[in-house]
Write a structure and sequence with these properties.
Elements: H1 5-8, H2 33-58, H3 72-79, E1 87-89, H4 95-100, H5 105-112, H6 136-151, E2 157-162, H7 169-180, E3 185-191, E4 194-195, E5 198-199, E6 220-224, H8 228-243, E7 249-254, H9 273-282, H10 285-295, H11 301-324, H12 343-366
Parallel strand pairs: 1-2, 2-3, 3-7, 6-7
Antiparallel strand pairs: 4-5
Length: 367
Amino acid sequence: MAIKEDQLAALGNARRVLNPDGSVAGEVPSLSPDQMREIYHLMVLLRTFDQRCLNLQRQGRMGTFAPLSGQEASQVGSSYPLQAQDWIFPTYRDHGTMRVRGVPHVSILRYYMGDEMGSHAPDGVNVFPISIPIATQLLHAVGVGMAANIKGDPVVSVGYAGDGGTSPGDFHEALNFASVYNAPTVLFIQNNRYAISVPLYRQMKSTTIAQRAAGYNIPGVRVDGQDVLAVYAAMKEASDRARSGGGPTLIEALTYRYGPHTTSDDPKRYRTQDEVDEWQQGRDPIVRFYRYLIAQKLWDEKQEEALWEQTKEEVAQAVAAAEAIGRPRPEEMFDYVFAELPSNLQQQKEQLLKELARRTGEGKQHG
């Protein structure tokens, strides 16, 4: 169904279920108390994991890392409604969605520690490897959706990107193909206000990202990305619609990353501490959902203390397991692309092995 011009103004108002103080502002989705507690558990787990990864990177125990703290509601809320057969296509900041969908933290840690085998999802876990190029994974998501239509499979594909991912042509190509072929695909955009250091207003003239859906004759939804129940409801509706043949949806989740774009940049150079404080102190997604659970008598302070300790221990065990795995050998870079290695690459591999052997010999001599 086309989005009429008089509907575009409404897209500026982000959908919300919970106010920042935890009070109810809209219709609460149908979730059991256990599901509510599981969603909260996942959000706390992601925050704990994220903070530990930042420490590991600063200690030199892990490579460049893209933290997600502040975006837990967007990632948990968008992935929790999906079914086992559905596929997600994450960016480098979507390890939260990957964990919710079944990728263990050990694998995620291996990836960020430089071991590409961490990109191998367990059997039955439909998660594509992390995409570093910006927005290319959106086309992959649409392709899987188109394939699902051809095969008649009840599969929904979800392509993740940040607001910066809506600037490349891949974003528009994905929307166009999804629209034309009625792909069962959701493009989920986490608008955290900055594409590295470039603010949103310098990326586009549109009032919202969601309104861009109108140009492709598909629904565009703007949701409060700090409200996990609102995100859940928006994704549940979009995925149910896609699965029933209704086609694609563009979702814009308004969120905020507390830390740097990656551990290689300094966010103080492009945003103020007052801005960060406003989001952390007034709009934190975990605090918001915690207040709701307390008000509904689904949670208490004793459970809260136990949960943070439990997640710390869970993450510590994952770190220990990841560090206990041997590092990949340099020559393995040649082993997983071609069934039969071309002669030029075979020659390079042999040269590398000789050089490694030479250095090992020199080390023994000087040892």
